[in-house]
Fold each of these.
Amino acid sequence: MSRPGARHGIERPSRTASTPDLGWSRRLRDGTLVRIRPIGKQDAELELEFLNRLSPEMRSLRFLGLVREPGPDVARGLTDLDPRRAAGFIAVVSDAGRDQQIGAAHFFVSPKGDSCDCSVTVSDEWQKRGVGSSLMRVLIEAARERGIRHLRAFAPAHSDGSHHLAARLGFKRRLDLHDPAVEAYHLELA
């Protein structure tokens, strides 16, 4: 099996028994080095800072309008994941020697275990630079390695960025029969 993201120009640093899993590295078109790594409960504060830096529009896209002001409980829910039921990755850059989260991707596995709902969010100032694509490629590979066969994502019908990213990654767009303001995206994994 390949490592998540390995087929898409995302390099995973070498690891030894004495070093922790560092995740993946990706150099953006402008030369910025972005690290993508699994999210953990130790990242709750980093996640909360990230969510609170999002514009109201991006926050609405992330939570489909259901969460306006994310608090510590929301951040904990997105970082303290049951590995049997979910996976999450964050994209970080170094800012004055401190990690700054610029994106996140998650999936939550269905009860049957063969499908999952997934999402990706990128900070406003990092949009259209390849961060979302990199995160989703890692997430797709992780789902494939788990034997998940179907990925599903939802976005507001007016979200052009989501439409373009989903199309580039091979997702098929379908109307959400329960909510005409939301579009559903499906990706079949082989």
Note: Residues 131-145 form the longest helix (15 residues).
Amino acid sequence: MTYEILTVPCLTDNFAFILKGPGGTAVIDAPEAGPIIARLEAEGLTPDVLLLTHHHDDHIAGAEELRAKGAKVWGAKADAHRLPKLDVELEPGKVDLFGDPLTVIEVSGHTVGHVAFYHEAAGALFSGDSLMAMGCGRLFEGTPDQMWQSLRKLRDLPDDTTVCSGHEYTQNNARFALTVEPTNPFLNDRVQQIAQMRTEGKWTVPSMLGEEKKTNPFLRADLPEVKSAMGMDGADDTEVFAAIRKAKDDF
């Protein structure tokens, strides 16, 4: 079956996504309802499902307006106490979405109870604020080890996966990445591409997972060259990840 992913800019630097398929239409995250509803109407679509990655207001604020348009709200059972009322409470594993499997992946770190959604038939990962283009979310609730294990799960997906993440933070993330791996040729090329895209007013989200694996320092904390660049040869992977995350927080 053929799927199409529509990217919907919201608020200042947020994104929602519309997954359009022959069996139905899903919206992923709802930072605000207006732009999402406008895009749905422009495409002649009705939202069947709203998938929520985590409880932060800039991902759920439009949920009730989309529910009023017909969307059933799906979210993590573990986070149900602070999400909008859920029609379907999800646990990690596979569920059916419009006749194809949707994999619900527990990715605590940014928050505890955060989930990502991998839709194999669409070749898409909806990662919220876990894995981002050139970065990852701040650890507001989880531990470095939780986030590192979460990112490892996402890194195991195919290189040709489209990563639909929650924010346009890529250019700043890229500047930071250069402080970690200044001699990474893939990173240097990507930094130039990102700068050109932003100069032209283009969004850098979605991105491709294969590119993230080559350039995103938060996915590379276990690599010897990254440990060496951080002055942490032989250190535990989680310790290296934690050091990279702290450096980004202070950047």
Note: The longest helix spans residues 185-199.
Amino acid sequence: MAIFFISLAVFVGVVCVVVAASYVMGDIKDGSKTEERLRSLTGQKENGEQASITKDAINDSLTGIRGMFKKVGNRFTGLSLLLEQADVSFRPDMFVAASFGSAALGVFIAIIAQAPVPLYPVAALVMGIVPLICLMWKRRKRFKLFAQQLPDALELVARALRSGHSLASGLHVVIEEMPDPISAEFSKAYEEQNLGVSMEEALKNMLKRMPNLDLKFFVTAVAIQRTAGGDMAEILDKIGYIIRERFKILGQVQALTGEGRISGIVLMALPVALFVAVYYLNPDYVMLLFTDENGRKMIAGAAFLQVLGAVAIKKIVNIKV
């Protein structure tokens, strides 16, 4: 059984490596079309014709594997938006391939660590979601930095409006004066309205990429001002002031709930750490949880209660401001 799982893990890992190589070769092939035309015009195509034929043959043989991962990636419609929100250059199919590779690595690590066979799927599941966890962490970090930069950006736009500039010019000031991620998002909105998209639609697209409540206030204020009029600079100053006050209250809440968050982390990690320690000290004692019917029921009940406890603790310490 161990040999079977080792072979399966190696097979999946090799497939993922081959898929990654096919993406690289595909990108190289797509990027060299202009150079190929220039070589054909200058009479240099004959020298590299054999290498080009070999590259085409290898790329065609990998088309089926790449297509399989593309179909799997296309089923997750929200994955493209998550990758865009996290500012990651991966395509959905590449992300799916990386997840499968991580799952195979988890099985391989479990085999090397001589874990019991019933834990192999658990190891594959845990390692398989590691890319998704990293993606969500980077997305959350980008959202948090964007929210911190938003008050300064709104004040810049308000100053630009007071000096006689248009709203589009105010967005351009933010692009020039502020760092990423807010400059990148405002740049996308600015380029969209330069290409003919209305300012309201461009800001709504930015709100879709960055679902922030304070940004929603800004987009709504722009839409109302475009139809009913009003002092846009004063509105932006008030929105910026409200955002800063919310950050002050949020900091106090985070300080008061810090003990609860740490307690939740300890309570979630302690059973897992204790299980691993007891397994390596006395494996026969722990294996009863997998070989006995009552033990399997206890494992399922413990996992359910762990998830339920994590959700309850998160609801308690996660206070919205």
Note: Confidence is low (pLDDT under 50) at residues 26-31, 45-55, 57-62.
